[in-house]
Design a protein that fits this description.
- This is Sigma-70 family RNA polymerase sigma factor.
- It holds the Pfam family Sigma70_ECF.
- The chain has eight helices and no strands.
- The chain is mostly helical.
- The chain has one domain.
- Helix 4 packs across helix 6 and helix 5 packs across helix 8.
């Protein structure tokens, strides 16, 4: 695994438009991204979206955006989490549209953790809508949720990436969770 300094140099080059550097960053961090995707899709047997497909689709989203710029490792993972969210939500939308016309139902719970993986169903679509609302109110809280739910990072890992205290991340997670639950129940 490349060191943080090497990744930072590659990210700087990628920010300058160097596609080879971006490919190097992705290759270097591929195993981490794949592990995150595998955790998120745990228990989704029989689905066409697996961890490898999720990472590859997220990669295509990452390289497809010219404005994608990564200041550091934390920014890269935040962007990767957002890309993974987009892929998972698109997949859930497609799946629900094929299954039952895509009707949403009311979500009554938001688990503290997602050890069993993300459910690619109506709950995912409702969560995406609520998370978009949260991003409009407080982008920092939305980023914590994305890193927790879509990148599968722990509070400790998020704190390290964002250079904040674990306690601060825990508070942000609780605030975000309360907001999302209220938003989900009001729909």
């Amino acid at each position: 695994m490349a060191g943080t300094a090497e990744i930072t140099l590659l990210l700087d080059a990628a920010r300058g438009g160097d596609r080879v550097a971006l490919d190097s960053v992705l290759a270097t961090l591929y195993q981490e991204l794949h592990s995150m995707a595998r955790r998120q899709l745990a228990g989704q047997y029989g689905q066409t979206l697996d961890a490898t497909a999720l990472v590859h689709e997220a990669y295509l989203k990452l390289i497809g955006r010219r404005e994608a710029q990564f200041d550091d490792r934390a920014h890269f993972f935040a962007y990767a989490a957002s890309a993974m969210r987009s892929v998972v939500v698109d997949y859930a939308r497609q799946r629900m549209a094929q299954k039952r016309g895509g009707d949403l139902h009311r979500v009554t719970d938001l688990p503290e953790d997602i050890e069993g993986g993300l459910r690619l169903d109506e709950d995912m679509l409702a969560l995406d809508v609520a998370l978009t609302r949260l991003a409009g109110v407080d982008p920092r809280l939305a980023q914590v949720v994305e890193l927790r739910y879509f990148a599968g990072l722990s509070e400790v890992e998020i704190a390290e990436l964002l250079k904040r205290s674990e306690r601060s991340i825990r508070r942000d997670w609780q605030k975000a969770r309360l907001y999302l639950l209220a938003s989900l129940k009001s729909d």
